[in-house]
Each structure stands twice: as C-alpha cells, then as structure tokens.
Amino acid sequence: MKVIVPFADVVGEWQPVRAKALEGIDRVFSHGRFVGGPEIAELEQKLAGITGARFAVACASGTTALQMAMMALGIGPGDEVIVPDFTFIAPAESALLLGAEPVLVDVLRPSGLLDPDELETAISSRTKAIVAVSLFGLPANFEAINSIASRHGIPVIEDAAQSLGAGLEDRRSGNLAGLGCTSFFPTKVLGGAGDGGAVFTNDEALAGALREIRDHGQGGKYHHLRLGMNGRMSSIAAAALLARLDRFSRALDRRRSIGALYDRLLEPLRETGRLDYVRSPDMAGSARSQYAVVLEDREALARGLREAGIETAVHYPAPLHDQPVLQHCRRSGRLETASMLAKRILCLPIHPGLTDEQVNLTVERLGVLVQA
C-alpha cells in the first residue's frame, strides 16, 4: 500500500537547512577539531538560551545525558531511582548501569505522565533521585513533583528527550528541575544527523561535574578527578544541529498548529467515548513531539489506517515492568494505568511537513474505523 500520510519525514525536515548543515560540516573538516571543536560551545550557548538554564552540556545521546546526570548526583549501588513505568527504557537502564535500582511508578491517564500521588508513596530511605519524563512533548507536573522531592530532600531529573522547546508558564522544558536531559535522535523535535544529547542545570558545581564526566572524568588533560565516560558529542553532530536551530521555532509552531487541529477534529469522537487524548491548558506549550490517542482495539485500527496509506506507531507497546530485563525491579503499586496505556495507545502522524489535508484525511479515516 502506498504511503499517503507518513508518520515522520526526517529527509524532508533536513531539506531547508541541508546546505547550511553541509557548510558547517565542511568547516569542521577545515579546522580539524572533530572532537571539542568550537561548534560544541556555540551549540551549548544556544541550547541554554532555549531552555533558560544557566548551563548546557552537550553529549553523545539522550541516554548518555541521563547517565551523566545520575553520575553527577553520585548515584550508585544500593540507591533507588524512581522512574515512570510508561516510558522508554533509558532512565531505568541508566540507573541499572550505575548499580542502582529503578523503582517503577504508575502514570496518569491519558497523558502517561508521572502520577505525583503514586510518586509520594514510592519514596523510601534509599531514594536518591526522581526521573520525571515530559512525555510526547508535554511537561510533567513539576510543581507537584518538585514540591514532593523538596520535602524529602531528593533531586529531580527531567527527561526532556521529547519536549525541548515546551514550557510551563514562564519556564521551559529542560529547566523544570535541578537537572534536565534531552535527546537529538533524528526523529526528535530538534533532530540531529545521528545521535546526540544534552544536560541542563543552573548549578555551577553540577555543570562542572558533568563536563568532567563526559570526558573520562578529566579536570585537565590526563588528570582524572572522578569516574567518567566517553560521552562527548562530535563537532560534526554539533554543526548539523546548529543548522537545524535556524528553523526550530518555526517547526515547533507547525507542530502545535497540527496538534490543535487534531484536537478540534477529534473532539466529536472523544465525546462519544470511543477514544481519548490529552486535554489540558498546558497543551498550548507542548512541543507536540507525538500525537497519542487512547482507544480500544488498537491493532485493528492501526491496520485499517495502514491499509489506507496512513502510518502510525505505538509508543510504547509494553510498560517497563513487563520488560524481561526489569523483572527484578521494585514496583510501587499495581501499575494499572501504565499497563492499560501500553495496550491502547496509538500515535498518529505529526511532523512539520504534514499538511492540514493529511491531518483531515487521518481523522476522517480513523473516525470511520472507530465507529464501524
């Protein structure tokens, strides 16, 4: 079946900035500083400006960013790290790689965001950090999460892999907690030419620790102050991202416009009770990295859309507590909402190149299938 509505368009998103990206990469070949070139500092300055954080530390990937953040907090064996049960495995994986234990906590319906009430009950004397994921472009309830964490003296890490550019009131995603981590995987809101990530903080000491950690713990050449890793971003990756930044605001605006159109067109279906999606005043500030709907008989509906040439995706088909590698992890509560979302969530196409006509076609076909 010919694809009429693609789920993503990575090639198309690069076309307007391709020439500039290649010029930037050519400059890297001219100066030869493929690691630690001037592009890194320039990118960090601009990323800090986007988030409002004092410091941005570029690194190799979003997962690297999470692990660096945990290392900067001194997380290790015997510690617990609270993570939402409905998300990508990276936060739990990062904790495990440091010898800590992820504690899986339930989420809210239909947003999939960390449930502050469930969070409170999961905290123990071993809790060393809380990771709150700003899922599908919408920041979690950081006012409540930070308040709970502050009462217990626990640092919070925002996983902003899907939400760069989003905001809550006067603060931006990446700068909603003590540490923020993002990803530049090619399909993200600010997608790179390969992997990449960054950590944000307003704490000068943490920023210094993060820079040392990403470079094998070095405080100076061959002077290793702490345990670190090779977490560096290449200068080529930074040059490509700098080119993408020129159209970042425009891409965000288009994603928000598409999201608002989906909201309006899907409202009659939501009122029938046949599907659900996030409705919140905060959606105006969402980065709209994914457009997720919650519905029954997901597989049949996805198949029907595919047969009509409309691509969809499932993020995520299993909660973390069902992953074989995480079976030993502590579970807080029954995790019922995470389990339900994993069975019913379906992500519809949303990217800057999507046309209003394609959105209308997607909703029209989905409506026919849901009501059949």
TrEMBL record:
PANTHER family hit by this protein: TRANSAMINASE, UDP-2-ACETAMIDO-2-DEOXY-3-OXO-D-GLUCURONATE AMINOTRANSFERASE
Family to which this protein belongs: Belongs to the DegT/DnrJ/EryC1 family.
GO biological process: polysaccharide biosynthetic process
Gene3D superfamilies: Aspartate Aminotransferase, domain 1, Type I PLP-dependent aspartate aminotransferase-like (Major domain)
Organism: Roseibium aggregatum
Modified residues (N6-(pyridoxal phosphate)lysine): 188
CDD domains: AHBA_syn
Stretches that traverse the bilayer: none
GO terms for MF: pyridoxal phosphate binding; transaminase activity
Keywords from the UniProt entry: Aminotransferase, Pyridoxal phosphate, Transferase
EC numbers, comma separated: 2.6.1.98
Name listed for the protein in its UniProt record: UDP-2-acetamido-2-deoxy-3-oxo-D-glucuronate aminotransferase
Domain of life: Bacteria
Pfam families the UniProt entry points to: DegT_DnrJ_EryC1
Listed InterPro entries: DegT/StrS_aminotransferase, PyrdxlP-dep_Trfase, PyrdxlP-dep_Trfase_major, PyrdxlP-dep_Trfase_small
Keyword Transferase applies: yes
